[in-house]
């Protein structure tokens, strides 16, 4: 290597590794593709098959239970506007992809955050990895995902999971660490096992912060799903991508407005659930 004009072919090395990985792990990649495609198809079928008015009533009922009548009213008006803009099927496709990515991301993030809070070497390894994941430009995740899975919903879901995962891990670890040590010691003094201390003391007390992390996961997933339209994921992301390529301002505004409505709906739902935890209610009562 010329030390005066250095050039490290990192990109070539990564490309060669992905090609090698594709050859040796083809059955695994096919299985992952089948899982995500099947999960997405099932959710999309459940969301898009019923009459849209029925789905609006279901969404409004969820909003009412989680966050009150004002959010329920916004849900009715917002989703009716999405239908009036002829973006209903695209919105349900985006919502299905967000749910797929969030379920997998949360299933990974919460246990990993708990493990990082309890085992310091795990935390020391996980933190720089999360820094890397959060610093990498969002679109950069789509390239290797497309190389491994081709275009469609699977690369979009994979890229969304990687992009949305870090805040879930960080806030879960922080939440567990912030639980009062004296409360944990009291549980130990009464002979509680580590598993019961985690499930009966630490997780309930940490739940408001964990829910804040889940809220961030959902918001990041929604933003990434829009970018995933470039990978052929369809939905509102595909509409936004098509609007950009055709310089169609109207289509871009309609699809963007639908994304905002879904974002507010999901944010209020998760925020409302976080406020309904026993710890959050106790904190409000003590003020």
TrEMBL record:
Keyword entries, A-Z: Cell membrane, Membrane, Transmembrane, Transmembrane helix, Transport
GO cellular component: ATP-binding cassette (ABC) transporter complex
Pfam families to which the protein is assigned, alphabetical: BPD_transp_1 (PF00528)
Chief location category: membrane
Protein name (database record): Glycine betaine/proline transport system permease protein
Originating species: Naumannella halotolerans
GO molecular function, one term: amine transmembrane transporter activity
Membrane-crossing segments per the record: 51-82, 94-119, 139-165, 217-237, 243-266
Family: Belongs to the binding-protein-dependent transport system permease family.
Stretches assigned to the ABC transmembrane type-1 domain: 91-270
GO biological process: choline transport; glycine betaine transport
Lipid bilayer topology: Multi-pass membrane protein
Keyword Membrane: yes
Cellular localisation: Cell membrane; Membrane
Matching Gene3D superfamilies: MetI-like
